[in-house]
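Sample entry (244 residues):
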Amino acid sequence: SGLRLPWQVAVDVAYSESEARTYVERGGGRGQEERSWPDVRLTVADFPIPDRFRIVVPRASFSAGYRRDRRVQVLGVEAGGTARGGEETSIPLQLGLSLGPGITANYSGTLSRGSSAEPTGESRRRGAIHSLQLTASMDPPVSLRDRMPNPLQATLAFSYQSDQQCRVRPSASEAWRCEPFVDLINRTIHLTLDTTISDLNVGLQMSYNNRRTNVGTRTNSSQFQLGLFGQFIFQAGNLSGVVR
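Predicted structure, serialized as tokens:
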């Protein structure tokens, strides 16, 4: 369901639940339940900006949400069974800015936290995803306008992703501690420049990726890529003398 409010404000609410029962000849009955609640999202299509800032940011949009997922799985329902399951909470965020003629900036991110339990123990998880993209359309330099009459499109993007997982175990001090078995960070920077020259779309792509893990051998790797591309633009028409 949803509610539309003045000033281009919207509130959306969702609820979902599923239940399944299966029977395996050797393993017996198996049950699974999943539920998503609450699942709420707030969207402001035209965020109110004070007049003194509209010169820099003429328009902005914003959205945020909150979602909680729970799942339970039971193996061997007839014999009492062993249960395993978990829950996860996520907060999605989005922000869009118009910074002037031909320039836009967009941010999207998700913060998540969860836990799972099974007969062998309990584990916890925490993650974050951030993505920032800046897009601009600009005229080429005056000295190149004879060869490049069309605007130059530029896109600069940055992404960050982290994933941390640990297993809860008792320690010698009778306190519970969480031993990490996954601790990963991935960062990427991407740049694209392209334009159209005489029905030919040409451009340049550059990207840098860094991947690091903080458990085990603690590996760290980096990669740089550079590419040039060209794409012909054809317009097809009717051929004379062809009988249909």
